[in-house]
Amino acid sequence: MDDGSPPHRERAGRHDIVELRVHGVSGARPEKILGRAHVTQVAGDRSGGFHRPVGSDSTGPDGLTLEAYRWGDLPSGTVARTRSLVFLLPFMLSNVAVWMRPTGRRSGAGVTVLCRLLALNLTVLYVASSAGVALDLLAWRCLGAAPCRAPFDTVAGLDGRQVGTRLALLALLPIAAVAFLRLLGTRRPRPAGNPLWAVEPLVGRLRAIHVAAAFAVLDLTLLSARAAGGQTASTTVLLALNAAVLLVCSGLLAIPGLLDRAAAKRMVTRAASTVGVVAVGLSAATLLAVARDQRAWPTSDGLPGYAAIANWALLGQMTLLVALSGLVLWHHGRAERNNALPRGLGAAVVAAIGVGLAGAFAADLVYQSGDLLGGYRGDGGPPVPYQWAILSFFLHATAGVALCGALTLLSRRRRWRAAAAITDRDFPTVTPAAAGRLRQATEAVARARFAEWLGLLAVTYAALAVIGLASNLLRLFDLAPAQLVRRLFGLPAGAVDMGLAMGSTLVAVVVLALLLGGVFAYRTAWFRRHVGILWDLGTFWPRAAHPFAPPSYADRAVPELADRITQLAERHRGVLLCGHSHGSVLLALAVLRLPPRVRQRVALLTYGSPLDRLYARLFPAYLNEKVLRMVGERVGWRWLNLWRDTDPVGGWIFAPNRPGDPPPDPADPAARVDRRLRDPWDLLAPPAEHHPPAVQGHHPGESDPRFRAAVRELAGRLLDTDGG
């Protein structure tokens, strides 16, 4: 249904109905959500709470009791925590990817396995890069093979110590890095009650597996270096046991459904805990064996065996990512296609971006540390795998920026034609005075439609990431970037050095931008409204792949909302749930948790909702049309969804109802949910006003008379259901 008529105001009678508003990613203050100067908190805490206006302002313009749920601080919390979570971005992306699995049972299980193995590989790479700084740079180069610049040539007085002692002591730095990750991933306290997803036992199992794998990789790095000078019985046994630990960790993740199967949970929990304890014990034995080994160590520029371990970690990423992409594309080729944002491809796309960032972060950590310490002077630079990782990130990131610009220009004409068709139908008669405003409205619609091209952009960028990761194959042929450039193009090695420096600088800029972005997302509503959706989307989903990903805030927000709705329904005649943007997602999941006696007193109003435009396409196995219809059935189809063509995030849920579309099926209740709002509702200013109506886009618009009309309609349905 298209509501494009000029708004009018009408005041309804006072009813005993609560209008519960839930904001989107902007994280607005409760005063702004409710449109009142004075509010008070009636439930919850500082991170997430329920607020009501004070005194005579407690009711809205239609006589409903106003209340707001503010959850904006749940994903981030303090500024310090927001900054720290930036380093967890690759882990967060790998965790989101597992929730993007296709709908097919077999392909979905395969995607879950590959995403969890990729997540384990990210932990391995994190430890390998930490070991690169602590063991290869500090312990081996700076204190031995190639003394670094002062004062790093005498780190903590270890320069005179035996090599094994230096390696054993500085191996405590990667161990501390793993402990730091575990600390960042610790779940924040949440209210008592049933969680949304009972995943904490799964997180515990994953955590034990990842910690065990981290210790095993660190041990293998130390033992490989020691074995290069000749193996002993102890090093051989420790190498075999640590390799077995790594295989067991991979095996626990590689068996489809093993971690999630109810009958095997106790057995898997015990196995994960056991392998974790064994890994810690083996690490203690490895450190002791390396420190006490008095034999001579081999002579080399870098830590023996370290480059091979880093290469196999990066090569494992590529292999798993190619397998994941192949599986997802195979499923997509057999499933329904969608040109706007392909359903089912999200797992491969997001995993590729996460893996690309992880490889770039790990390589740049080693590169920048070596540049700071002066540990790579005269020996060809950092390990070859990291050189390829930095160069590939620089090349595909540069190509991605160029692609984004090209896609913006190439799609402009097509987007403009589609937008012009919409505004021409909305405003068939335009006076010369309104021509400029018509162009502004058309431009706003055209900009909003760029979101429909983001799927193609993301898929192409992911393909570039896969190509970049494939460069690690060149390491198998002992080809460094400088050698390849010299052989193919005849360029000097300085060209590669310049590319490495530019790539490393680009990665550092990305990290700095993420750090600043985390701060601005916490402090600035404008920035959070435009960028915060990415972070809120990532931290919305529970940890089902990577245990060090940020904790899910939905595990608190959704049960808290459901409990509050239940309380309000028992005290009042009805509860009208009003959810903007991501708030509509939280409310939809809360509705699915409500008991039957409460659903009869609940109605749902969503606006700027990404339920179909983003979530149903990105997460087809969990938020699809079947689930959305279930939400409608739970509230007796007392559901209206308001959307605008100028909104780049939200949209229709069941039917577009655009001008010229065929009329919906009157027998289908879902076809009556969506209502398109013409935006702007007029091109010229009303007689009593000086300025024309503004383009609203993704703004909430609770004061819009068309919004208030929807509130009155749903309130009336609640009263009819209640017999009032």
From TrEMBL:
Organism superkingdom: Bacteria
Listed InterPro entries: AB_hydrolase_fold
Spans annotated as Disordered: 682-707
Keyword Transmembrane helix: yes
This protein's record includes keyword Nucleotide-binding: no
Transmembrane segments: 84-101, 113-135, 167-185, 206-225, 237-259, 271-291, 311-332, 344-366, 386-410, 453-474, 494-522
SUPFAM superfamilies: alpha/beta-Hydrolases (SSF53474)
Keywords from the UniProt entry: Membrane, Transmembrane, Transmembrane helix
Protein name in UniProt: Integral membrane protein
The species this protein was found in: Micromonospora arborensis
Classification of source organism: Bacteria, Bacillati, Actinomycetota, Actinomycetes, Micromonosporales
